[in-house]
Amino acid sequence: MNAMNANASPELAPQTPQTATTPREGFFINRNFSLLWLGQTGSIFGDFVFNTTLVVWIAATIARGQAWAPLAVSGVFIAASIPPILVAPLAGALVDRMNKRAAMLGAFATSLLATLALIPATGLLRVDALIRIPLSATWTLGAIYCAVALLAICTQFSAPASLALVGALVREPTRPRAMGFLQGSSSLGMLIGPAIAAPLFLTFGPLWALLIDAASFAIAFATLAAVRLHAPAVAEAGKQARGNLGQEMREGVVFLLRSRTLRVLALVTAVALLGAGALDALDVFFATHNLHTPLSLYGLLSTALGVGLIAGVALAGGLAQRVGLTRTIWLSTIAIGALVIVYARLDSFGAAAVALFFMGAPLAALQVAGGPLLLRETPERLVGRVSSLLTPLATVATLAGAALAGYVDSTLLRDFSARILGMTFGPVDTIFCMAGALILASGVYAMIGLRGADAHSAASSGHEDDAG
After folding, report:
1. What is the mean pLDDT of the chain?
2. CATH code, domain with 211
3. In angstroms, rounded to a whole number, what is the distance separating the alpha carbons of residues 112 and 94?
4. Span 11-19, mean pLDDT?
């Protein structure tokens, strides 16, 4: 870490070789991180089951046969996307003021209560029969959207606090491996959660999905409560005067803009996700029209990507430690851009599944390296604010990419067809090629902008060790 502040939570006070001993590391790094990882894994799994169930529940039951059913389903994604844009910067500033474990415990407890409250609010527990007021589809959808928005707000507190805890519990050389474990949990959740959510819904209804998600928050709360954190010897830590929230939020923005590494990381993230948003919006049309894939097999493309992510996680931590964090980021971004262009030119389901599998490895490496790089470049007292600035940036870029791709496909390139160098180009594959080129260009920019950052950081760390 670069710098510390007395305002930081007592649990996150710096430990140097002169003041604390480093715990022996095992496969899961150490006891505290293992507990954090276990709780996060349960929460991620519950979230995937919950989110998939909501979509199926609305489409198959609440809005079944209605012309507004697609709009009702899209409301779930809107409710989940707005809070990161509006709340994340404020949440990051508040998290920097708070005890990080307490922030996560509060977020998990609130998420647990919000999930349980959805059961009577949607009529799954027959409260409506007791008060003799039938629940309309509008009321049920409103309750779902409110719960989704509240859960998204809780995530804006738990995510930066979790990143800060990883920085406190795991030594810098081991952080890529720690992020690899967390990314592996997310990939497994993406594979297993949606796969069991639909059968679970069809067999038992939505109640069990809500109970599973609530149980996952309870597990996350219990495991985090068992983490042992060591308070610093300085009794006055955390008692220094604070400025107002506006000043603290501006401090995070100023630091991000003045840090060359973080500034490049933010720009690369925005540009790459602008391209990724196009893929999210149009991939189902690409699969059915270009790959000639029936809708029943469309989900298997996500499965191929998920398997690739899991395989990539096993390699990403070692790669980041071997070649450096910044090199891992630009190499991975360039590889993703090139593979998206290859994917855009395919015309068979099997080849596309293989391409997505191989795309999983650089995606995993990119996600494994990003968190440790942010922790390395950001003073501990600013981790919440800086990481929370990247969240709305990523959300806006993804939504903008999806909206732009949908507009271009339905208007500018609606009847587009061209043949170049013996290859035929249609609307969707042309947009995908542009998206891949955009991602590739952001990787080249990262290669130039982050040049020497790892070496500079290593030199700075060496000077600090000598001074110590």
Report:
1. 80
2. 1.20.1250.20
3. 21
4. 36
